[in-house]
UniProtKB/TrEMBL annotation:
Family annotation (Pfam families): SET
Source species: Baudoinia panamericana (strain UAMH 10762)
UniProt cross-references to PROSITE patterns, sorted A to Z: SET (PS50280)
Domain SET: 1-169
Protein name: SET domain-containing protein
Length: 318
């Protein structure tokens, strides 16, 4: 279904579709190389890997910019020193202590490649970590607690030899400059997707649509006021509709958009707009199923939420 190959001089390795992948297809379902609750556990976790797993971990990307921005050597050395003390090896020969020198690189690999599992843990994956970023991705990753695996699903049809991409950023309808600033600060690269290309007509269209949406959101915030006295469910519903339409025009899908759809369904139901509530609930559930899979506990929770919105209407179990 996919292959790992060279994605270009600035990207390194990437994941490519070896055949046409339909929307809603599970591309990967991978167990972690390691998972931790805090960065202070990373050094010990990597030391606990077998040689093959440790080599695979260390082969993952580690941005030079990220390393210089977010980690001082003294901080890394302290984490390593504490790990060695915990292991009872503080009196080890000098060769053992030289491993501390590796810790800045270990922690930067972790920071550059970890995914949130949603239970207070972060994890690093061998194959999932090879998937590159796009601000308009064709896939989404989420942790399936029932499987104990991080799954990657196609959120639209992916053509043969097309690169599989994820968004490394939370979807907040951010403008180009804000997205690029976050990426350079946290990952050490600038995105080259069409949405970030000011010379691409599609990118200019995305940027203009988001600027208009930001203006509408500011207007909504002004009407609501700091004390919430101006809040109107009808106005909020209109804003939710506009957000969904904007994302659909861009080709953005996934849990964030599905959540907006379900919120819009709740507002429509409260306003007595049953048909609109059903339509938005079904749209949201379809997106969730496509990016999570029917066996995901998160999808199951959304099905129950949709049923409560629509009074158990069968059409919500898409």
């Amino acid at each position: 279904m996919y292959r790992i190959g060279h994605a270009g001089p600035t990207k390194g390795l990437g994941v490519f579709a070896s055949r046409c992948i339909p929307r809603g297809t599970c591309i990967m379902a991978e167990t972690p190389l390691l998972s931790v609750r805090s960065e202070s556990e990373v050094f010990a976790a990597v030391r606990g890997l077998n040689n093959d797993a440790r080599s695979r971990f260390l082969s993952l990307s580690s941005s030079v910019i990220l390393r210089s921005l977010v980690l001082g050597w003294s901080e890394a050395a302290w984490h390593a020193f504490r790990a060695l003390i915990t292991e009872g090896t503080a009196q080890s020969p000098p060769s053992r202590w030289r491993s501390i020198i590796d810790h800045p690189n270990i922690l930067n690999v972790f920071r550059n490649n970890n995914f949130d599992l949603g239970d207070g843990r972060q994890a690093v994956f061998d194959k999932v970590s090879r998937i590159n970023h796009s601000c308009i991705p064709n896939a989404q990753g989420n942790f399936n607690a029932a499987l104990g695996r991080f799954t990657i699903y196609a959120v639209r049809q992916i053509e043969r030899e097309e690169e599989v991409t994820l968004s490394y950023l939370a979807e907040t309808a951010a403008l180009r400059d804000a997205r690029q600033a976050r990426l350079i600060d946290h990952y050490g690269f600038l995105c080259g997707c069409f949405a970030c290309d000011a010379n691409d007509q599609r990118g200019r269209k995305v940027e203009e649509g988001r600027r208009r949406m930001h203006e509408r959101l500011r207007e909504f915030a002004d009407v609501v006021g700091s004390d919430g006295s101006g809040h109107s469910q009808q106005t909020e519903l209109e804003v939710m509709w506009k957000l969904v339409k904007m994302y659909e025009a861009e080709g953005v899908a996934g849990r964030e958009v599905a959540t907006i759809c379900l919120r819009a369904a709740e507002l429509a139901a409260k306003a007595g707009k049953r048909a609109d509530a059903l339509a938005m609930a079904e749209k949201g559930l379809r997106m969730e199923k496509d990016c999570l899979g029917a066996d995901s506990p998160m999808y199951g929770a959304s099905v129950e939420r949709a049923r409560s919105i629509t009074n158990g209407h069968d059409a919500c179990a898409v």
